[in-house]
Amino acid sequence: MRKAFALPTVAIAAAAFPLLTMGTALADHDGSYQASLGAVNSSGVSGTGMVTLKGDQATVTVKASGLLAGSPHAQHFHIGAMGTCPTNDLADDADKDGFVSVTEAAKYYGAIGTSLTTEGDTSPDSGLAVDRFPTAEGGSYTYERTFSVTEDVQKAFAAGTAVLVVHGIDKDGSGAYDGDIKSDLDPSLPMEATAPAACGPLKAAQMGTMPAGGAETGAGATSGTENQAAIGVGALAAVGAAAAGAVAYRRRQADQA
Ligand SMILES: [Cu+2]
């Protein structure tokens, strides 16, 4: 009895599966990610980051304010560590030079994965290409660019360990990057030019474009692909609870692949 009942269920699920495959062919990191930028080094900087990943293409928007005006601000995706930001300026200043340096923050947010330059190369090699980073006219900027990102960066987004970091502070209030303390990254630069000013973990947006989003949140599937799948099953005029369950099961399996 059970096998006789199960056969049409499998057939219905198989009929619907090609539709589901269209959705699950997307890379597992595809979707939207958001960061809320918090101040590091008591910079007073705040802002937001938005990244939409589709395959290896990243569309990036960064809005930051409270920055040293008229100066370039290096900005990166950092990857490969805890996916967090320094939490306590004093405790994280291990060498007690008055700055939480990039080196001291690395245990939280990792190394540079992508340099968010305005043009040209976006690799870690451009990490301090100050002539190709946004300049904060009036103390703020909006940055928008689409480019390809490497596989290690894509994986960091999926793993929740990608962090948006904006650098450059004016700790002594002189109106410029200066001071006696040299950068831990490049001793030809003042520490003020490279110390992190703002940091925010990039987390998957609640309202993403991923077809998996509807399944993960339970009832109320809203994506086009899932609606097509439901219609496909319905057209077979055999929509029982068993069939719906089988489709949902296949969908979960596909999501976890
Ligand atoms: Cu950085």
Automatic annotation (TrEMBL):
Q: Which residues cross the membrane?
A: 229-249
Q: Which domain of life is it from?
A: Bacteria
Q: Which residues form the signal peptide?
A: 1-27
Record keywords, A-Z = Membrane, Signal, Transmembrane, Transmembrane helix
Q: What is this protein called?
A: CHRD domain-containing protein
Q: What is the protein's species of origin?
A: Blastococcus saxobsidens
Cite the source lineage.
Answer: Bacteria, Bacillati, Actinomycetota, Actinomycetes, Geodermatophilales
